[in-house]
Amino acid sequence: MRSFNSMLDEQMDDPEFATVFEAEIERLNAAVAVSRARGEARLTQEQLAERSGVSRVTINRIERGKLNPSMKTLSRLARAMGKQVRVSIS
């Protein structure tokens, strides 16, 4: 039986798959980061919306991984939570 990682490695050889997969990872990383930061700030989605000027619906879509936020939106959310956005290229 092949492992998940070996199957994924095989699929990543396909450039189209790799592009879609990386976009999904970025969206999910943003979802987890915003949700965790909001929890640490002890804010509801509504409170964060009021502080940031980003709608609660948009925040909800980001946290559910349904929307890949722009850097501008991430920065607005981060500032509203007293945090900063950091970008890493590896």
UniProtKB/TrEMBL annotation:
Cross-referenced Pfam families: HTH_3
InterPro entries (UniProt xref): Cro/C1-type_HTH, Lambda_DNA-bd_dom_sf, TransReg_Diox_bact_type
Domain HTH cro/C1-type: 34-88
Recorded superkingdom: Bacteria
Keywords associated with the record: DNA-binding
Coiled-coil ranges per UniProt: none
UniProt KW Disulfide bond keyword: no
Gene3D superfamilies xrefs: lambda repressor-like DNA-binding domains
Keyword DNA-binding listed: yes
GO MF terms, alphabetically ordered: DNA binding; DNA-binding transcription factor activity
Any single Gene Ontology cellular-component annotation: cytosol
Protein known as: Transcriptional regulator
Source species: Bifidobacterium animalis subsp. lactis (Bifidobacterium lactis)
